[in-house]
Amino acid sequence: MLTHIHHIAIICSDYEISKGFYVHTLGCRVIEETYREERNSYKLDLAVGDFGQIELFSFPEPPLRPTQPEARGLRHLAFGTEDLDAEVARLAEQGVECEPVRIDELTGKRFTFFRDPDDLPLELYEN
User: Fold this and answer.
1) Is residue 67 part of a domain?
2) Angle at 52 between CA 66 and CA 126, to 5 degrees
3) Do β-strands 52-58 and 8-12 pair in parallel, antiparallel, or remain unpaired?
4) CATH number for 13
5) Average pLDDT of span 56-78
6) Which part of the chain is the VOC domain (predicted)?
7) What is the pLDDT of residue 92?
8) SS3 content of the chain, % helix, strand, coil (to 5)
9) Segments forming the whole domain that contains residue 113
10) Residues 42, 4: one domain?
11) What is the pLDDT of residues 15-42, one digit of tens each?
12) How many whole angstroms separate alpha carbon 67 and alpha carbon 40?
């Protein structure tokens, strides 16, 4: 029986830029950082709140992947927040532009999208 999503894995094009974005801009907490010399690759384990985790990987010259929301595969990664307006303002102070806030027609909850340094679509969803 599945109990929860353990982690989301992301491969970035520039490790230092993405590390800064997820740690300093989004506020994820570093659990562990590992350099794998045989792969010339970093693996950064990040905590998202009390339960979620992101594994941020770097590899030499990773291939591009389509990121449009309607492309096959992962559509986007969504983060929950108690105060959407405050989080949008905090991101704006960090230079991150969010789309206009919308209302989920099924739940009545507010949400918006923004992009990570590799153009991965990320969502903020108000709890």
Assistant:
1) no
2) 80
3) parallel
4) 3.10.180.10
5) 79
6) 4-127
7) 98
8) 20, 35, 45
9) 74-127
10) yes
11) 999 999 999 999 999 999 999 999 999 9
12) 25
